[in-house]
């Protein structure tokens, strides 16, 4: 068995996503399982090269996990002899310039979403990577989650008949920072720092709708900043300049209507923090991150509207859980493995920077729609 080492420059690993999902649960998890088998007895061994702004945080992190390579200089990291891939999980505003540097240094690029702050920049990054002949990918983790994989399985099997509508509900209460500390970084609530619900979540909704149901053709969005003042990590009060809720309606190809509420100012009365209900002529499903329940037309009850009588039916008990029928790995890790195989073996990989740009496009059009109070078409993108 031969081992092929591949250096992965990882930027933003002191952050929530960079550390937990990408470093620990993906790259280090791949090492813990003995590497990634590539076939023909070869195993890929990802070697993280940590890069960030704070030397002491990087050193502490490297020591904690027994890692040898870290630096506060992006140029130095990109020039590392092992470096083949650049990965970015920094705050969104820092992303574009770092990816440009990585492409200029000839590194394959994998990045968190949104891939850039504007559609023009996102397309430019996709074009630059393609012209340089570099592999490139954008994180689309929700597609690899058990609940949504089961939903996709149902769509592919024809379970729904004709799909009519999708209703998505995402959100939870993010504390204001006053009487309890906030559980998300404060930049998310400042537009000038790349924050905002639409920029954060519409990239996800784009690939979820496109990839599981049908391509998004138009968007209408209404936004709100329900909590206008919050308290940051240092205990300072700041003005929340970004949208903390977005109420979106999307028309999909084939006449499907999708409506998704996204809010950080809502209390959860759901089984999971995000749920999508898909209704079709032959059946319906409600998918969350892990679970997916269905109701076939043959088992659909016939409720009769009568406000004079208490509800007698236990509607929630009339659904059936979709079994796993397979083992599901961590969604981030599953996508990392596909990207690493793509880079090293040339296997196909569809979630590239152009797909990432589609998410930025939907966010940009969503914000414009909210500003102008009108529905906007979502044109096809090409490089
Ligand atoms: N795929 C997902 O489900 C998902 C979920 C949350 C966030 N994200 C994305 O991941 C990225 C990081 O989000 P996070 O929640 O981990 O954020 P975070 O604030 O926890 O981490 C941000 C990281 O960027 C670094 N950074 C670089 N320049 C910075 C600057 N000028 N100011 C502040 N930090 C700077 C920080 O040191 C830190 O390592 C964002 O682009 C976000 O959109 C994706």
Description of the molecule:
By secondary structure, the chain is of the alpha/beta class. The chain is 31% helix and 26% strand. It has nine helices and 18 strands. The chain has helices spanning 16-32, 55-65, 74-78, 95-104, 119-131, 146-157, 197-213, 331-345, 353-372, and strands at residues 2-11, 36-39, 42-51, 69-71, 83-88, 108-111, 136-138, 163-171, 216-224, 229-231, 237-239, 245-252, 256-263, 274-280, 283-287, 292-296, 320-321, 376-377. It has a nine-stranded mixed sheet with strand order 17-16-15-14-8-13-12-9-18. Strands 1, 2, 3, 4, 5, 6 and 7 form a seven-stranded mixed sheet that branches. α5 links the parallel β6 (108-111) and β7 (136-138). α1 packs across α8, α5 runs antiparallel to α9 (353-372) and α6 (146-157) runs parallel beside α7 (197-213). The radius of gyration is 22 Å and the shape is globular. The two termini are 41 Å apart. The mean pLDDT is 97. Nicotinamide-adenine-dinucleotide binds next to α1. It holds the Pfam family GFO_IDH_MocA. This is Gfo/Idh/MocA family protein. Residues 50-134 form the Gfo/Idh/MocA-like oxidoreductase N-terminal domain. InterPro entries: Gfo/Idh/MocA-like_OxRdtase_N, GFO_IDH_MocA-like_dom, NAD(P)-bd_dom_sf. Residues 149-285 form the GFO/IDH/MocA-like oxidoreductase domain.
